[in-house]
Amino acid sequence: MSAEAPTDAVSADPVAAPAPAARAGRRTLGVMLLLTALGAVLVLTAAGRVWAEGTAGTLEVSVTGGRISELPAGLALVALAAGVAVFAVRGAGRLAVGVLTVLAGLGAAAAAAAGAGDTAALDAEAARKLALTGSAATGVGHTGWPWVALLGGLLLALAGLLTARYGRDWPAMGSRYEAPTGKAPATRRAAAAESPADLWKALDRGEDPTAG
User: Fold this and answer.
1) Which of 8, 89, 152, 183 could serve as 39's disulfide partner, Cβ 3.0–4.6 Å?
2) Cβ proximity of 71 and 119 under 8 Å
């Protein structure tokens, strides 16, 4: 009597098995890219807006976030570049990129918070307009843009956390961007061993002298 296979055995599909993990990886990658883009836009936009304003004598003075501190915008650009670099690295490189993005985002947020109540740049602008060293602005007021930059920095830090946690599951550049391996070096060496005259003769015959 021939033995029958157990009816409850389920064959594993090696192709379909990774599909859920691949979809989850693409989803977290998309969220990371969205957070990076949104965070960078918020920081860079806020840095170009007025953060503090007041008067110098009868003149109105104001300063943008970029005048108060260049750190938020600079660190936002670092985080944006790190988000693009994710596609060029793998393994430990993804973790390093994630940590760098977290630090850049937190740094941008901290610099924005520090600049929210800063008056030094505004006083310097008042002194410049009055041409009087040591002049200070009066009636100083602050806008909400520093807090927009702070929010953007936190979004960038969150994007970095996603990269550090899930980056290993994300796709990387295709093999065409990687260094050639296998038979390619041997092929180049064989082609180099031929004389220029042999190469020209092969081309005249319609042959590929590098094929081998």
Assistant:
1) 152
2) no
**Which tokens go with 126?**
């008042």
Rounded to an integer, what is the distance from CA 106 to the centroid of its chain? 14
With beta carbons less than 8 A apart as the criterion, state whether 48 and 35 touch: no
Q: From its phi and psi, is residue 29 left (phi > 0), alpha (psi between -120 and 50) or beta? A: alpha
193: burial class by Cβ within 10 Å (0-12, 13-18, 19+)?
Answer: exposed
C-alpha span between 167 and 205 (Å, rounded): 51
d(CA 108, CA 125): 23
Tell me the CB-side half-sphere exposure of residue 23, using CA atoms within 13 A: 4
DSSP assignment, residue 18? Answer: T
Q: Which DSSP symbol is given to 94?
A: H
Residues 105 and 161: beta-carbon distance below 8 Å: no
Q: Within 13 Å of residue 190, how many CA atoms lie on the same side as its CB?
A: 10
* pLDDT tens series, the chain, 212 aa: 455 545 444 444 444 445 666 677 788 899 999 999 999 999 999 999 999 999 988 889 999 999 999 999 999 999 999 999 998 888 889 999 999 999 999 999 999 999 999 889 998 988 888 877 777 888 899 999 999 999 999 999 999 999 999 988 887 665 444 444 444 454 444 444 445 556 556 656 655 544 55
User: For residue 7, what is the DSSP state?
Assistant: T
How many residues comprise the chain? 212
CA distance 189 to 185: 6
pLDDT of residue 156: 98
